[in-house]
């Protein structure tokens, strides 16, 4: 299908997990939907994640509530889209290395529980039983949330895209938006399409797309690099083939590690302002050696890198412009996989009541 239709009830801009979820939920509700993606489906931020969906977000029960709603949808994904996801439970653990972190966790626990998030405090010994890499005296305690799963983000994109098409949506890849007129005419190199409503789900480029419509979305793209370790060996090295590690995060540094086949996948953002890559890798190595002694001195290698859409407070904003038919879902700050079903449902509900 090469030619754009002249018009559509909704034009979704962006074909990652959020955009394909929106297209699926809109088309399922009977909305005439067209999706425009500048590259390939899922080729942006959706392809550059650690492949985890979880419900516990420290200090952020609002995101947790969205993630709980989304995880329920993922468990029913095959029935809704015809595409199985193959969720594999790993669990998610946050390591606490000072008493204030433990106190903050306990103070926030009622709000997490009210959001439906399953998380509780465990001892250092219990944490080491779940992740044998943790040093004997490295942590004081940890938060443990069993409801965290490995998933291939592209499987989510493909499933939602197939579901959207099955309900009549038309999806156009390699079709960047170049201009948006005041009457919601969307211009692309392939032609123009008049939208009753525009739905902006363009990830790191959402601010740019919104700006074309004279809408201000206060977000900034942020980069992240994923790293692989060498294959651990020796008598103290982890047997990752037989003991798959949960996603484990250090509350202080934000360092995250998880099993990835016979190696360890890890992330800790990107070098800070004025920091060399070598200094950043040195900081990561220092935390690894302190928290996970079996990984002390292990080689680190680039796995992949990418941009994601970051909001000022790291919490996604989903809404609509007050004076024009322009809806948006952006600022997921790396947690788009965890919230995509709920985001698509909320965009659908916003649009169909207009």
> What's the gyration radius in Å?
21 Å
**Helix content range:** 25-40%
Amount of beta strand:
25-35%
Summarize the biggest pleated sheet. Answer: 8 strands, mixed
Q: Return residue spans where pLDDT drops below 50 for at least 5 consecutive residues.
A: none
Sum this structure up briefly.
The chain is of the alpha+beta class and 354 residues long. It is built from nine helices and 19 strands.
Features:
elongated, 8-stranded mixed sheet, 31% helix, 19 strands, alpha+beta, single chain, 354 residues
SSE order and pairing:
Elements: E1 7-13, H1 17-28, E2 33-36, E3 52-54, H2 61-75, H3 77-81, E4 88-89, E5 92-96, H4 99-114, E6 120-123, H5 124-130, E7 141-145, E8 148-150, H6 153-166, E9 170-172, E10 179-180, E11 185-188, E12 191-200, H7 206-212, E13 220-229, E14 247-250, E15 256-260, E16 263-267, H8 277-291, E17 300-310, E18 317-320, E19 326-330, H9 336-352
Parallel strand pairs: 1-2, 1-12, 2-9, 5-14, 12-19
Antiparallel strand pairs: 3-8, 4-8, 5-7, 6-7, 10-11, 11-12, 13-16, 13-17, 14-15, 15-16, 18-19
Helix pairs in contact: 1-6, 1-9, 2-9
Overall description:
- With 354 residues, this protein is α+β, with helices and mostly antiparallel strands.
- The protein is 31% helix and 27% strand.
- The strands form 3 sheets. Strands 1, 2, 9, 10, 11, 12, 18 and 19 form an 8-stranded mixed β-sheet that branches. The chain has an 8-stranded mixed β-sheet with strand order 6-7-5-14-15-16-13-17. Strands 3-8-4 form a 3-stranded antiparallel β-sheet.
- Helix 1 runs parallel beside helix 9 and helix 2 packs across helix 9.
- The protein is elongated, with a radius of gyration of 21 Å.
- The protein starts with 6 loop residues before the first strand and ends with a helix.
């Amino acid at each position: 299908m090469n030619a754009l239709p002249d018009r559509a009830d909704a034009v979704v801009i962006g074909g990652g997990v959020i955009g394909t979820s929106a297209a699926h939920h809109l088309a399922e509700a009977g909305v005439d939907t067209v999706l425009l993606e500048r590259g390939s489906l899922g080729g942006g931020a959706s392809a550059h994640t650690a492949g985890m969906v979880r419900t516990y977000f420290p200090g952020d029960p609002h995101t947790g509530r969205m993630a709980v709603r989304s995880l329920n949808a993922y468990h029913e994904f095959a029935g809704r889209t015809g595409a199985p996801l193959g969720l594999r439970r790993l669990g998610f653990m946050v390591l606490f290395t000072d008493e204030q972190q433990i106190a903050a966790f306990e103070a926030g626990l009622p709000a997490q529980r009210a959001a439906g998030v399953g998380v509780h405090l465990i001892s250092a010994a219990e944490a080491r039983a779940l992740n044998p890499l943790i040093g004997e005296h490295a942590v004081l305690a940890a938060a443990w949330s069993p409801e965290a799963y490995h998933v291939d983000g592209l499987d989510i994109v493909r499933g939602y895209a197939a579901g959207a098409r099955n309900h009549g949506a038309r999806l156009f890849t390699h079709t960047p938006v170049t201009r948006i007129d005041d009457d919601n005419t969307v211009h692309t190199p392939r032609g123009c399409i008049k939208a009753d409503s525009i739905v902006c789900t363009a990830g790191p480029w959402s601010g740019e797309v919104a700006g074309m419509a004279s809408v201000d979305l206060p977000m900034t793209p942020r980069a992240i690099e994923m790293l692989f370790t060498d294959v651990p060996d020796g008598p103290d090295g982890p047997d990752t083939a037989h003991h798959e590690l949960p996603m484990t995060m250090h509350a202080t540094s934000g360092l995250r590690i998880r099993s990835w086949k016979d190696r360890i996948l890890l992330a800790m953002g990107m070098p800070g302002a004025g920091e060399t890559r070598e200094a950043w890798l040195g900081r990561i190595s220092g935390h690894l050696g302190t928290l996970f002694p079996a990984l002390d001195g292990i080689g680190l290698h680039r796995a992949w890198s990418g941009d994601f859409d970051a909001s000022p407070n790291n919490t996604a904003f989903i809404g609509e412009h007050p004076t024009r038919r322009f809806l948006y879902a952006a600022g997921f700050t790396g947690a788009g996989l965890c919230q995509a079903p709920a985001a698509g449902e909320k965009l659908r509900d916003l649009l169909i009541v207009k």
